[in-house]
Each structure stands twice: as C-alpha cells, then as structure tokens.
Amino acid sequence: MKNKAFLSVPIIVIILIVVWIFIRNNATDKDSRDYPQIQHEGVLRVVTDYNSVGYFVLGDTIAGFNHDLIELLQENIPLKIDIQLESSIDKSMDGLRTGKYDIVARNIPVTSELRDSVNFTEAIAQNRQVLIQRKKKYNDNIEPIRSHLDLAKKTLYVPAKSPVILRIQNLAHEIGDTIYIKEDPAYGSEQLAMMVASGDIDFAVCDEKVAANIAKTSPEIDYSTFVGFTHLEAWAVRKSSPVLLDSLNVWISRIKGTEAYNKIYKKYYN
Prior knowledge:
About 45% of the residues lie in helices and about 25% in strands. By secondary structure, the chain is an alpha/beta fold.
C-alpha cells in the first residue's frame, strides 16, 4: 500500500503540470490572438456600449454610430462579426486583454494613460466632455456652474475607470483645489446623466454628443459647461494584435473619405 501511495504522488504531480501547461498555453493563445487566429476561427469578436449615440434600438431596428460603422466593416471583411454589449469601459478593456473581445468599438477618448495598455486605431470621431447639471428652474433656482473654479469641493460622478477621470484630476490641479470623483461601477455616463436629471445626483460628466441626445427627452439637464477640450476618439485593440490594428487602420483611412462614412457621421454627430 505504501509503495502504491508513493507511486501515485509523481503521477499526480505530472497531471498537475500538464494541466498548468494547458491553462498557460490557452491563456497565451487568447492574449496573443491576432488577425491570423481570428481569420482561422472565422469570427471577429467586438464589444460596444449601449447609448443614444453609439448603439441603440430604434423601433424594431438597431442603430447608432458604432453600430453603423461595424455594419460597414462587415461589408468589407470575410468574417462573421459577433457583437457583445458592455456598459463598463473597465470590463470591456479587461475582456480585450484576455481575448474575450478583439475590438472595443466604442468612442474612447485617446489618452496617454490608456495607450500604455491598449493600441488605438485611427481616430473615428471628435468629441468633448461636458458637465451635466440641472438647469436653474429644475434645481431650486440655483444657477448652473459656468466657471471651473466653482467645481472646487464638488463631487462629479463618472463610470468606473472612465478615461475622463484623468481630465478631472488635471482640472483640479489647474484650479488649485479638490474636485471629488465618484466612480460608479454599475452605470455608464448616459445613465448617470439621467440620474442628474431626476435629482438623484447633482453632477456627472458625459460626452457632449450623448448629452445633446439626452437633453431632447430630459429638458432638466444643462450641458453647456465644458470639462475638457475637443479630443479624438477611437476604437481599441490588444497590444498583441498588430496585424489586426494595421488592417483596421487601413480600412478606417480608406472609408473616412467616402460618402458612406460621411453619411454615418452626419447622421449621429451633426
């Protein structure tokens, strides 16, 4: 019995080593998934977020800037595109890094901080961040904030791990005072803007284009105070997917001069 127990130990160790190698190799394959692996599978995995500009349901159809661009991409590649929805930018980026997604197709501000962990495509749009607050008649007759100096000691709500956090931190440095940042792990910027309209919170930060759409149905909100300058927005891919990045950049550069792209851009950004 002792000899059998002794012999079983190295067998168990060998099994554990084999399992560990399999898991490691499988993770490595996902992390290094590039266009050849995607092409072999025949599926391009794309994640985007649900909002009133990028991707939304209109009646019995799906529309949105990113949705229409993805549809345009589908016409130009021999792959099936699998679209997933995820409101959290943090979870989208995590899914990208682990190989769950191949492209994060949402309007991501191009920042040096994010460049350290992902590669950005050529810019697909321009936008700027605005302060979401209530208009005077919906806010106990309190005038909306117009000067950045008046943001001192105020609490601004943003989605968890949002790229705008760095901009708010820089803004606090510029005014020489504290601006409190509340990261919400559950809601995107559009949902937070609607919470401002309903009076659940006082301030949020949102893309100007999204804010303009919300204001059409939520007249309570004011979005006239800019938090940052005009910035470029792009899609993101893994650092380990240079071939996919090059292919996307070639496609983006080619379509940006076409009537199809101009029609999509004007539809959602003008």
